[in-house]
Amino acid sequence: MIAESLALRYPETAFVGLRINNVIPPDRYDILQARRDDPATGRGNFWSYIDARDVGTASLAVLEGRSAGHEVFLIAAADTSADRPLRELMAEYYDGYDRVAPDHDDFASAFSCRKMERFFGWRPTYSWRQAGQGAGGAR
């Protein structure tokens, strides 16, 4: 509400909110192992996370980009932190929320960053799934 009000008062200034999801440092992907051992531990944010390096590049994209008014963007990894399909986890842990879009990739995040890509050309690039391979890159 404050950002909306400020955007009305100062229309020449952009106000951007980043909803950053469960930041994991690149050397601490082991933290996510608990979600694979006990999936209930990841249900609070639908098994999502974001690599700290991606938080940095998202922030930079916003600072270097252009927008107007007040906008809010989700920031999450492209994949989940689980090794089971999201559809399966949703059905097990959220009664009545088992209707995931049929074309939703089994391991894609429940949170879409498409708006960030549309506005700023940013996409998450790091994934715990490639951590052992020494390279970033979402599933």
List the helices and strands and how they pair.
Elements: H1 2-9, E1 15-20, E2 23-24, H2 33-37, E3 50-51, H3 52-64, E4 70-75, H4 86-93, H5 114-120
Parallel strand pairs: 1-4, 2-3
Which labels suit this protein?
single chain, 139 residues, alpha/beta, Rossmann fold, two-stranded parallel sheet, 5 helices, 29% helix, disordered C terminus
Q: If you had to describe this structure to a student in words, what would you say it looks like?
A:
The strands form 2 sheets. Strands 1-4 form a two-stranded parallel ribbon. A two-stranded parallel ribbon has the order 2-3. The chain has helices at 2-9, 33-37, 52-64, 86-93, 114-120; strands at 15-20, 23-24, 50-51, 70-75. With 139 residues, it is of the alpha/beta class. It has 5 helices and 4 strands. It has a single domain (2-82, 109-133), classed as NAD(P)-binding Rossmann-like Domain (Rossmann fold).
